[in-house]
Amino acid sequence: MTINCDEVIPARHGKAIRLRKGEAVAVVNTHGTQVVDTWAFCVEDPAHYMSMEHTRVENGRLMPAVGHMLFTNQREPILVLEEDRSPGIHDTIMAACDRWRYERLGCQEYHRNCADNLVEAMAELGVAVTEIPAPLNLFMNIPVGQDMSLTQGTPLGQPGDHVVLRAQRDCIVAFSACPQDITPINGRMPTDAHLRLFPLTIGADA
Amino acid sequence: MTINCDEVIPARHGKAIRLRKGEAVAVVNTHGTQVVDTWAFCVEDPAHYMSMEHTRVENGRLMPAVGHMLFTNQREPILVLEEDRSPGIHDTIMAACDRWRYERLGCQEYHRNCADNLVEAMAELGVAVTEIPAPLNLFMNIPVGQDMSLTQGTPLGQPGDHVVLRAQRDCIVAFSACPQDITPINGRMPTDAHLRLFPLTIGADA
Question: Which residues partner with A91 through β-bridges?
Answer without folding.
Answer: A137
